[in-house]
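dumping this here so i dont lose it
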């Protein structure tokens, strides 16, 4: 089960953006990949396809593996592992560090 959802704040553990934080834009659970705002920026060169249309350089976020990020707890504001607690037909994510719900 994936413990990261859309709009979560995550901490980057390794790679060229190590130590940065950002919010999750998109999650691909079958591929175990996520897209984080401001992280893993790639540059694409777009060629003009019609006359009068300008060529351009596009900077956008690329997907990174879920194992390279750790969710940031909303209460203690630190990267933490996630545990799941089941109570009254609800499954909630809980911070291992401070025992608060996400």
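and the seq i came up w/
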């Amino acid at each position: 089960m994936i413990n990261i959802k859309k709009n979560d704040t995550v901490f980057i553990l390794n790679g060229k953006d190590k130590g940065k934080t950002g919010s999750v834009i998109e999650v691909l659970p079958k591929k175990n990949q996520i897209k984080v705002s401001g992280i893993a920026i790639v540059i694409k060169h777009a060629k003009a396809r019609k006359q009068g249309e300008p060529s351009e350089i596009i900077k956008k976020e690329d997907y990174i593996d879920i194992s390279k990020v750790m969710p940031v707890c909303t209460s203690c504001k630190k990267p933490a592992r996630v545990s799941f607690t089941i109570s009254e037909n609800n499954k909630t994510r809980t911070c291992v560090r401070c025992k608060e719900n996400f």
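The domain at 1-71 is CATH 2.30.30.30 (SH3 type barrels.).
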